[in-house]
From TrEMBL:
Transmembrane segments: none annotated. This is Alpha/beta hydrolase fold domain-containing protein. It comes from Photobacterium halotolerans. Residues 83-288 form the Alpha/beta hydrolase fold-3 domain. Signal peptide: none annotated.
Length: 311
């Protein structure tokens, strides 16, 4: 029988006890509180921030929209393949700054250039604004690196966690037949792939295990504000072919999003897409943001991504 990591269980019990006391005192979650919560949690638990030889902030512009990005190049004297990273946060929280240590670890461990995208967030900027920002960066990735005089290899990987994973899977489907954009790999870290919340693990793991089912519903209601068809917007239900990118799926046993990740792997495998599945049977959603509690599992995850990208 699989069991939750003991140290994580102790932390979770205290976390949810505090949350219950807050709710009983009349506390109502706000967008600002959600954003501050993710920022503070990550800053507290992800304290190892590796040195990267070159880090720069710039923007990618298209018409009237300028999308901020942060670029990490671990070895500026040699060309390296490229990762575009889309952070998690339920489409409402997270930022380039919050995910800076995670992107540094990705860049160092994989020896890839990482381009982290500060896409617009709901509710101020609902669906599909964040996706549009990510598309701008993907379509201009090579001119961007040339403009910054960064040595690169023209191999493109998209990586995202949680809501960022949803965006990655959506963009991979959107670009699978595009004549000018080639996505070689995608890495999906406990991704949100079913906005209808119809998979069994949503209910099974949706209470007392950090990511709550009712909070997921609230996130999605902030993201979809104009009556969009949530099934059609879900990567799990999008049309796919054997031309989808080579894929690494990372899931956690006690995550509400576990089953949609498993179903997605089955879909791609049936289509003949080169797909790997890395499952942690003692972890919860967002464990990369809880690194000090589970350093071994986080280290294994970064190494798995590096191994996947070098084979």
């Amino acid at each position: 029988m699989v069991k939750l990591d003991n140290g994580l269980k102790i932390w979770l019990d205290a976390y949810h006890q505090g949350l219950t006391q807050l709710m009983q005192s009349g506390y109502v979650a706000t967008v600002e509180a959600i954003r501050d919560g993710l920022s503070n949690l990550t800053a507290t638990c992800v304290t190892d921030s590796p040195h990267i030889a070159r880090v720069l902030d710039t923007c990618v512009a298209e018409h009237t929209q300028a999308v901020p990005v942060r670029i990490y190049h671990p070895a500026p004297d040699r060309p390296l393949p490229v990762i575009v990273f889309l952070h998690g946060g339920g489409h409402m929280a997270g930022s380039v700054a919050v995910y800076d240590p995670i992107c540094r670890k990705l860049s160092k461990t994989t020896q890839h250039i990482v381009v982290s995208v500060d896409y617009r967030l709901a509710p101020e900027w609902p669906y599909p604004n964040g996706l549009s920002d990510a598309s701008i960066v993907i379509e201009q990735i090579w001119p961007l690196l040339e403009q910054q005089k960064l040595a690169y290899l023209p191999t493109l990987t998209l990586i995202g966690d949680s809501g960022g994973g949803a965006m990655v899977a959506t963009l991979s489907a959107d670009y699978q037949d595009h004549p000018d954009v080639s996505i070689d790999n995608q890495v999906l870290i406990y991704p949100s792939l079913d906005y209808t919340m119809s998979q069994p693990s949503v209910a099974a793991n949706g209470k007392g295990l950090f990511l709550q089912q009712d909070k997921m519903q609230w996130y999605f209601d902030q993201y979809f504000q104009h009556g969009e068809d949530r099934q059609a917007a879900s990567p799990l239900f999008m049309a796919k072919s054997g031309r989808m990118p080579r894929t690494l799926m990372i899931t956690a046993e006690f995550c509400p999003l576990r089953d949609e990740g498993v179903a997605y792997v089955q879909q791609l495998s049936a289509l003949g897409v080169d797909t790997e599945h890395f499952h942690l049977d003692d972890m919860i959603h967002a464990y990369l943001n809880l690194e000090s509690l589970v350093p071994g599992q986080c280290g294994a995850t970064y190494q798995k991504i590096a191994d996947f990208l070098t084979t």
